[in-house]
Amino acid sequence: MNITWYGHSCFKIQTKSQRGSDEAVIITDPFEKNIGLRPPQGNADIVTVSHSHNDHNNTESIKGEPFIIDAPGEYSIKGIQVEGINSYHDKERGIKRGRNTIFIIESESLRICHLGDLGHILTEEQLEKIGNVDVLMIPVGGTFTLNAKEAEEVIGQVEPKIIMPMHYKIKGLKMELDDEKDFCSEFGGQVERGIGRFNFKKKDLENIENKIIILDVFSN
Hints:
Distance between the termini: 19 Å
Radius of gyration: 16 Å
Strand order of the largest sheet: 6-7-8-9-10-11-14-12
Order of helices and strands: EEEEEEEEEHEHEHEEE
Number of domains: 1
CATH architecture: 4-Layer Sandwich
Number of strands: 14
CATH class: Alpha Beta
C-alpha cells in the first residue's frame, strides 16, 4: 500500500485488494483551490467525503468515474471494504458545524481510519465500530477540529500503529490553524519527517506502536 498527502485532509491511497488484482486508487476529502493549496488531480476509483464543506468535497477535481462515498454505511468497491461511521464536526452533536463521517478503509489486511473533521472525543459505540487501526489519519490543527491535546486523547482511545496528522497549518494554506509542532510536542514519542510517500505492508507494522509520520505535500 502507498499513501501520499496533498495537504489538509486529502490523501491518495494506492492499494491492491489481493495479489494479482488491479491497483485501486482512493482519494480522501479533496479540497478546492480557494484554501490556498493545489487541488488533487488524476483518476481515482473511490473518493471519500467526510462532510460537505468546500475544503473537503471537491469531487469534481478527480478524473475518471470514481465511486463517491459521502455518508455512513458499508461499501465494497473493487475488493476494497469501506465503512462510514457517523460523528460530529463539533462538541455539540453537530449543532455548530454539522455532521462528520469517519471512514474505515480495509485492504491488504490493513485498516486505515480517516477521522475527517472530527470535533469531539470518540464514544464507546464509535470506538467499537472503528476497531483495531493500523494507520490513523487525525486532524490536529484545532479551531474547526480536534486540537493537539484532544488529538492525543483520541489516539489513546484508538491505539493505532501509525499516526498521520492532517488538517493543520502548512505553507500556502489560507485557513488559520495550529501547525503540527504543538501536537508532536504534546504527544511525544517517535516522529519521522520528510516522507514523500509511505510505502508499507502489514508485516512492516508488527512491532510499531504510536509512530507519527509527517508526510510532505505531494505535488501533482
